[in-house]
Write a structure and sequence with these properties.
By secondary structure, the chain is of the alpha/beta class. The protein has helices spanning 2-30, 56-71, 83-91, 105-108, 153-156, 170-178, 189-196, 224-238; strands at 45-50, 75-80, 97-102, 112-129, 145-149, 163-167, 184-187, 203-205, 211-220. Strands 1, 2, 3, 4, 5, 6, 7, 8 and 9 form a nine-stranded mixed beta sheet that branches. Helix 2 links the parallel strand 1 (45-50) and strand 2 (75-80). The radius of gyration is 33 Å and the shape is elongated.
Length: 240
């Protein structure tokens, strides 16, 4: 009797195991194959330094370069820094280049390659508070306080005899002008408008234009091939 119970138990266990194995086999046979998720390939990102003033000119250049780099398979991001520092850090390879600068920057920053297709033109003006006119020989007067953003090479190239006051941002320079802490502000119209907005009429823009220069994109030498490809693309887009 004991042997029968043991035998029956073994037979039942075997039947149950067989049934479970069959059920698992059927389940596997009719199971839907797992779908492989497509791998998303993110475009590589290049980061470019630029100055702290986000003017309409800067936005237009950033948009133009964003479109061009997208055609090449890149994304770009812009980091805003004090003008002098952004050049130094881009030259040191901390960034992939400089968003835009005037020509000949590469002479002082040898690691930066100028993409030789102009992106825009910038004009330098002398600004005063509204109602204050500058004499024709104002650059020769030693009693004038003349302010501009540190690292703004076009402004630094103007030969004046007055007291030079350098600040970090266009906002600081405009504020100093409005507070009568400087007499003349050297800057481009787009930057001053970005600070004053609807209050732009509170300043006077003296004539004539002090200087004019084309603006170029700069790429660190580690991206020499990128610079070559971008130059060809920008030139092609310009001639369309």
């Amino acid at each position: 009797m004991v042997s029968c119970l043991r035998g029956c138990t073994l037979i039942k266990g075997g039947i149950v195991g067989l049934l479970l194995s069959s059920a698992l086999a059927l389940t596997s046979a009719f199971a839907k194959p797992q779908q492989t998720q497509p791998q998303l390939h993110t475009a590589p990102t290049l980061v470019f330094a630029t100055s702290l003033t986000r003017s309409s000119l800067m936005v237009a250049i950033e948009e133009k370069l964003t479109r061009a780099y997208r055609q090449m398979g890149y994304q770009i991001r812009v980091e805003q820094l004090p003008a002098g520092r952004s050049l130094a850090m881009a030259n040191a390879g901390r960034f992939d280049g400089e968003l835009f600068r005037i020509a000949d920057v590469e002479h002082d920053y040898a690691n930066l390659i100028r993409v030789p297709v102009p992106l825009a033109t910038i004009e330098l003006h002398a600004f005063t508070r509204q109602g204050i006119s500058l004499p024709n020989d104002w650059t020769m007067q030693r009693n004038l306080r003349i302010g501009y953003v540190r690292g703004f090479r076009l402004a630094s190239q103007v030969q004046t005899h007055g007291q030079v006051v350098q600040v970090t941002t266009a906002a600081q320079a405009v504020q100093m002008l409005m507070q009568d802490r400087i007499d003349v502000l050297l800057d481009d119209e787009a930057s001053v408008r970005s600070v004053l907005g609807p209050n732009f009429s509170e300043v006077s823009m003296a004539a004539p234009v002090l200087a004019q220069a084309e603006l170029f994109h700069y790429v660190h030498q580690k991206h020499h091939d990128v610079a070559t490809q971008l130059a060809a693309l920008l030139a092609k887009n310009t001639t369309r």
